[in-house]
Amino acid sequence: MIRHTESTMAGGITWFWNERFWLPSNVTWADLRSSDGAVYPQLEDFGVILPISLILLIIRLIFERLIASPIARFLGVPAVNGRPAEDNLILEKAFQSVSRFPDDKRLQGLAKQLDWSVRRVERWFRRRRNAERPSRLKKFSECCWRFVFYMAAWSYGMYTVPYESWFWDTNSYWYNFPFHSLTTPIYNYYVIEASFYLSLMLSIFTDVRRKDFIANLVHHISTLSLLGFSWVCNFTRIGCLVLIIHDASDIFLETAKMANYAKVHILAHINFSIFALTFFVSRVVIFPVWVIHSSAVISLKVIGPFPSYYLFNGLLIVLYSLHLYWFYTIAYMVFIIVTQGMVEKDARSDVEETTDSSDETESLNGSSKTGNSTNHINTRSRAAANHH
């Protein structure tokens, strides 16, 4: 029985990594084994990704606690959401065991039981819900970590990748494919980026919950799949270009969000404007013109089609569809800001979380009444941080 199971698993692995699917005709996995003369990507190289991603998670926890949080406190970012709810055993029991969002009938019953006004009971529940939401300090710390990584990764990529002999000629991405020897900078770049995106996917279930949770999850899965497939099949040249394009705009988004949490709204607007422009140029224009055109059109002319060609380009199209979705939300925000000068209930605010808009207004002490135009940057416009 055990021997049969092992045989079945081995057969499944062999079927999945069938070289007729993943590689061009007349190329085998044996041809891509590294030698003294050339180093090619190997599947086992990705064995270091999970340990590094776990190390990144530990580094992130230390960074957020010892560096990002003190910076946030220095900038006046609050660690709590508005005023705390007053102690009340009856309301706490109703909150914990009955409903966090009681209906009118229950509100009236609780008000009568406590000899409170209905409005006071509503306020208590709102403040109690706010107490369980992630604070602006926590969100600032998350953004600070992503900003540091995106800045470091993008800087490293720009320092190394454009100096590769093939970078500026997209035809060179496919000449003599897949026999492209791997350099140490490209190896390091791929491994650290893949590890970071895996750490993001591992932490997405514990991070601040966003309205675009599903889109972000799809983005992380698509990105990791692209990184993995492009590594195994040695699409690393086009993969490096994808990574550089993605990291560029995220730097400005995370800066804008940190400025917003610190209520430095001018800086938030400036960085968000730069982010919107960078996102449009890099992900809406350059990505299809340079990346997809090279991968789908030029590669077809140079090496011809093979099965994984369709898979790889399909994933690129999924990624581009997410870019268009996010750019729509960005363009909508920019339109509202330009035409109205402020955002009612702020489309960028805690629409990014699974809470009602009245909680946000309460937690910010009625900021909409004071004409405060930016309470939070909406992570629906986040690109694949996100990428994420």
Number of strands: 0
Give me the number of helical elements. 13
Instruction: Show unreliable segments.
Output: 4-10, 343-388
* Main beta-sheet annotation: none
Series of secondary-structure elements, N-terminal to C-terminal: HHHHHHHHHHHHH
Name the helicity range: 55-70%
Mean pLDDT value: 81
Backbone structural class: mainly alpha
What is the terminal separation in angstroms?
Answer: 45 Å
User: What share of residues are in beta strands?
Assistant: under 5%
Shape: elongated
CA radius of gyration is 25 Å
Q: Care to describe what's here?
A:
It is a single chain. With 388 residues, the chain is mainly α. The chain is 64% helix and 0% strand. It is built from 13 helices and no strands. It has helices at residues 2-16, 19-22, 49-74, 89-97, 104-114, 118-132, 136-160, 184-203, 213-232, 236-261, 265-302, 307-340, 357-363. The longest helix has 38 residues, at 265-302. The relative contact order is 0.12. Mean pLDDT is 81; it is low at 4-10 and 343-388.
Keywords:
388 residues; disordered C terminus; mainly alpha
Which helices and strands, and how do they pair?
Elements: H1 2-16, H2 19-22, H3 49-74, H4 89-97, H5 104-114, H6 118-132, H7 136-160, H8 184-203, H9 213-232, H10 236-261, H11 265-302, H12 307-340, H13 357-363
Helix pairs in contact: 3-7, 3-8, 5-6, 6-13, 7-8, 7-10, 8-9, 8-10, 9-12, 10-11, 11-12
Sum this structure up briefly.
With 388 residues, the protein is mostly helical.
